[in-house]
Write a structure and sequence with these properties.
By secondary structure, the protein is mainly alpha-helical. It has helices spanning about 1-10, 20-30, 30-45, 50-55, 60-70, 90-100, 105-110, 120-125, 130, and strands at about 15, 75-80, 85.
């Protein structure tokens, strides 16, 4: 999971990611169907907040744990802004991973993203409290 998180950070604008971006990209990388749904929602002219819930994206504790592991191993750093960025060691680890051809299915999907993923665009897809009233996420 740490490798997927590093790849997801790399796919984000400015090589930095917030937790919503990471959760969305890790979910999208799980299958071609998830990826297609994410790209369609992300690329829509008018983001639909409820799409997040309809797609079935969940905040997965494993993503948070993978971020923590990456930080502990020195592969990523948490900025005061809350963003997670790759460290020099993280970039080297990612390069070794790519050179070895590992995680090629995830790499292929993330390389198909239409542009670097921005935090503001992902947050625009998050449901509001009105969207989730009475619904357990």
């Amino acid at each position: 999971m740490v490798a997927v998180v590093l790849l997801a950070i790399d796919a984000c604008w400015g090589d930095r990611a917030g937790l919503p971006q990471l959760h969305a990209l890790v979910w999208a990388a799980r299958s071609r169907e998830n990826f297609s749904q994410f790209v369609a929602a992300y690329a829509a002219d008018t983001p639909q907040r409820s799409i997040w819930r309809r797609m079935g994206v969940r905040f997965n504790p494993a993503v948070d744990q993978a971020v923590t592991r990456a930080v502990i191993r020195g592969l990523a750093d948490r900025q005061s802004s809350g963003s997670i960025v790759l460290t020099h060691s993280g970039r080297e680890h990612l390069t070794q991973l790519l050179d070895a051809g590992l995680m090629s299915d995830v790499v292929q999907l993330l390389n198909e993203l239409p542009q670097p993923i921005t935090q503001s665009r992902v947050v625009a897809l998050l449901p509001t409290s009105a969207d989730v009233e009475g619904v357990s996420l």
